[in-house]
Amino acid sequence: MPNILSEMWEQMVARPDGPLAFRFYIQPLMASLLALRDGIKDAKEGRPAYFWSLFTDAEHRAEHLRDGWGSIGKVFVLALALDVIYQLIVLKSIRPVEGLIIATVLAIIPYLLVRGPICRIARHMPSRRALKTSRRT
Asked: Furthest-apart CA pair in the chain: how many Å?
């Protein structure tokens, strides 16, 4: 078992240097941009920070998960598909567990890390209406 885990780790660490390495930059960027959009929307609607609300708001947890998956699902599936292509090209086999780990690291984790802080920052930014009103006076 330790040999399998060490081999899996070595294969995952080698991915950013191999073919399709661009995805290690593009997919976290896309996930972060989606989180930026959703975090600002959360702030405008007065919702709590996303990741925190998954733990603290049990009543609406399923709704929050559906909302998050609706935003990040396509990026996750693309990350998974590109990793399968990488595996076929380089490893000549498909390793589903490695693919799921890579897709999670490239899509879901950046989304979770960015959406909540953006919501908090946007909540403390003055709104455009408030800025327009203060300029008139």
From this structure: 71
